[in-house]
TrEMBL record:
It comes from the Archaea. This is DUF2213 domain-containing protein. Pfam families: DUF2213 (PF09979). InterPro entries: UCP029215.
Amino acid sequence: MPTNKKFALATDSMQLDASGITELDGIISVPATIAKHMIQDYDGLKVLKPATELEAAAKYADRIPVTRDHPDAGIVTDRGQVLGFLKNPLYENDELKGILEISNKDLAADVKDGKLKELSIGFFCNLDNTQGTVGDAKYDAIQKDIFLNHVAIVDAGRCSIEDGCKFHIDSKNRIDSPPDPIGKLDTAIGMAENDYNSTLKDLLTEIKEMVVAGSSTGDSATIIAERDALKKELGKIVHAEKDAIITELTTLQDAKTADDLAKLDLANLKKELDMVNELRTDRLSFDGRGHGSGGKSAVDDAYAKVGR
């Protein structure tokens, strides 16, 4: 069935207002509006950023990195790019707000001195090409399933002070999923590298090499057949990795069943496993102090409360 959605990696920018800065132990805290419910112009394409999607995105935005300009890959791929974090994201009054905690001395100094005055979020979304209106304003598409990757402090952005975006943000340069297959693969390879998934990265690199070779020979039927075969192999790899994590999690804790865990995607399963292992590590410091002889109860009690 055809769909009018496409996955996109994008950036939006807003103005930075440094008047509310506070500083403690060399770390500056800057209240910021990082995104707004509004229609934005992406090189002629009018795109709606809905309030409901921003409100949902806020729940997953705590502690995303703050960077100086957008990373070359469009997403954060190296710890050295992280110069601070976004804290306490909250959506209210049509604005997604938070506190930028900047620990890098050079970036903090440029913000305080007013040398950098705009912010830009880097995020993923599904671009739904459904047209509509908000009041008298028309839009050509809707950003859905918004997932923030980072907040960049930049020289210039898309959403102005007049629009209500301040360093109290949304960029002129957009990084959509490219229209050509090789460009899409490059984006996917960067995402796999960011997730430290070497198996997926190697598979995508192999697909890219095949596409490049096939493009030069013009054998499109062979490319499609090989692509479908590799896609099936990729599905098997992801499924096997999920099964292994679910097995490990069901061994380590009793709070969530295998059926509950099977509903999660691979990325969230990895997060669950990291959290359980962290809880088990913390448990070692108080094992034997009335937390049960089986070794699970402390982990289960803490784990069961997550997400309530």
